[in-house]
Amino acid sequence: MSLIVIGSILLAVSLVFGLVIIVNAFKESAGQGVLCLVVPFYMFYWALARYASPKKGLVLSGWLGAAAVAAVLLAIGVPMALGDAARSIDRELATGGFARPSAAAPVALPPSSVPAPATPQAPTRAAFTCNAVQRNHVCFTLTPLPMFVTGSRTGCEVGSGGQWSEGASCPSEQVVGTCRKELNNEVRSFYRGANLAQAQTACTAFGGTWQPAP
């Protein structure tokens, strides 16, 4: 959860610096300010080519740098937070932590009519893949409980910028490290270009087992 908090704070910092840029665009002219607000990527052009200020370097660093770091932290933190929530539910299900209705008094039945006890069936789980190799150099497979499939998909597509698909299908080429978690049978593969030190720290901090590529 600390990654999400830090990422959110950095995102807020980036938004503040972005607001400074927009205010200065309006100071130049109302037209430039409106273009920054409504035309995609025009704000990047204006900030780099037209923004003139002694503090330009500081403003651009705060705007773009904080946004980039926030994106990385949120991409790692959101799926991990969803995994922690799923692990908590699994633990409650395994230990019987959820409240159960009080048992009614047993009813005596003739020996010939007593039904055989039903065998509890474990929830059926399907395997899924979140492929964010192109954007964040990471791909992971997992088998969440059916109730957490939608949340896991949202964390993949929104938090990690990945492509969600059914089945375990992460690429095997250029893998530089792997993080394995017992919860949801989750396997995260990190690829060339990933920050291995940060990935290993996050893996072990959330109960995973880190394995570098041979």
Short characterization:
With 214 residues, this protein is of the alpha+beta class.
Summarize the helix and strand pattern as letters: HHHHEHEHEEEHE
Alpha-beta classification: alpha+beta
Mean pLDDT: 81
Task: Note the total helix count.
Answer: 7
Give the proportion of residues in helices.
Answer: 40-55%
The major beta sheet can be summarized as: 6 strands, antiparallel
Uncertain ranges: none
Spatial ordering of strands, largest sheet: 3-1-2-5-4-6
The coarse overall form would be elongated
How many distinct beta strands?
6
- Give me the Rg, rounded: 25 Å
**What is the domain tally?**
2
Strand content: 5-15%
Cα-to-Cα separation, first versus last residue: 31 Å
Characterization of this structure:
The chain is an alpha+beta fold and 214 residues long. It has helices at residues 2-28, 30-38, 42-50, 56-95, 133-136, 149-159, 196-205; strands at 128-132, 138-142, 163-166, 175-181, 186-191, 209-212. The protein folds into 2 domains: 2-75, no CATH class; 125-214, no CATH class. It contains 7 helices and 6 strands, in the order ααααβαβαβββαβ. The model has no long low-confidence stretch (mean pLDDT 81).
